[in-house]
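Example S7 (structure tokens).
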């Protein structure tokens, strides 16, 4: 099984003991043969959060060590770019062959890249963010963690 982790999952995993326990026990993240992927966008978001919140060097080092357990996917990878176009077109209700059964969704650009990473790598997307719900089953399986 492959998972792409949304930025919020990583932050909850690092900060919230209940969420960490749930992910460790129910999904066995980091203790199995599953591939854990993140978008380079997630790496940028976490590093930005760390700088804005003035995390200390010890905390930043611990986060970087944690992130090194994951496979970091670059957005310049052609299948991810193609997946971005696919998901954005669908989300805007402009896809030529797939009908969006809801009103158009304006996804944040970072969320689009993260979703595109899940699609291009045939991974499940794990998140706490309901903005991805319209993509569930249409493009990938969504694992929505309620916090």
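Recovered sequence:
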């Amino acid at each position: 099984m492959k998972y792409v982790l949304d930025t919020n999952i990583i932050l909850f995993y690092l900060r919230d003991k209940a969420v960490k326990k749930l992910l460790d026990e129910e999904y066995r993240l980091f203790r199995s043969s599953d591939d854990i992927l993140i978008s380079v966008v997630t790496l940028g978001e976490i590093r930005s959060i760390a700088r804005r919140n003035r995390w200390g060097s010890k905390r930043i080092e611990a986060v970087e060590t944690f992130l090194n357990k994951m496979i970091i996917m670059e957005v310049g990878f052609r299948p991810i770019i193609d997946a971005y176009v696919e998901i954005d077109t669908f989300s805007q209700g402009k896809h030529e062959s797939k009908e969006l059964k809801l009103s158009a969704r304006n996804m944040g650009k970072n969320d689009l890249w993260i979703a595109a990473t899940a699609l291009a790598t045939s991974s499940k997307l794990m998140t706490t963010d309901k903005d991805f719900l319209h993509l569930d089953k249409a493009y990938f399986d969504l694992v929505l963690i309620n916090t």
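Notes on this example. The chain has one domain: 2-144.
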